């Protein structure tokens, strides 16, 4: 006998199936799978690739990437960020250093090994990026990215206020 869903009204179920969050998560999972598959030979996930790219950018800009700063920019909490950085630390792709200006602040930096891994992964990422663009269309991708950035900014400010 199947469990009853009597307490959930049909109208609610229709709204739930149209939920923006659930749709975004489904699309995100599909895109993530495509990038993860492309990056698989490097041993990196797309999330790890993104962290290495962020840290490479911070290094080029000669800015310190504290856990708090990174978490804020990436839109994740520091605990989740630490959990995501752990495999990169274990592989020696990133390292922790203390902020020279404030010894209580932990800075994350990309290592030479991490830079080599990032360089190896970039062509595979480019291929995945091209496949997504081909599937969705360059114009749609540009519009989607603009909408995602705008949405992120608006949702961030509404969560703070």
List the helices and strands and how they pair.
Layout (H helix, E strand, L loop, with lengths): L9 H8 L2 H20 L6 H15 L6 H8 L3 H13 L3 E6 L2 E9 L1 H25 L1 H23 L1
Antiparallel strand pairs: 1-2
Helix pairs in contact: 2-6, 3-6, 4-5, 6-7
How would you sum up this structure, described in words?
A hairpin with a 2-residue loop joins strand 1 and strand 2. This protein has a single domain, classed as Winged helix-like DNA-binding domain superfamily/Winged helix DNA-binding domain (Arc Repressor Mutant, subunit A, Orthogonal Bundle). The longest helix has 25 residues, at 112-136. 70% of the residues lie in helices and 9% in strands. It has 161 residues and is mainly alpha-helical. The model has no long low-confidence stretch (mean pLDDT 90).
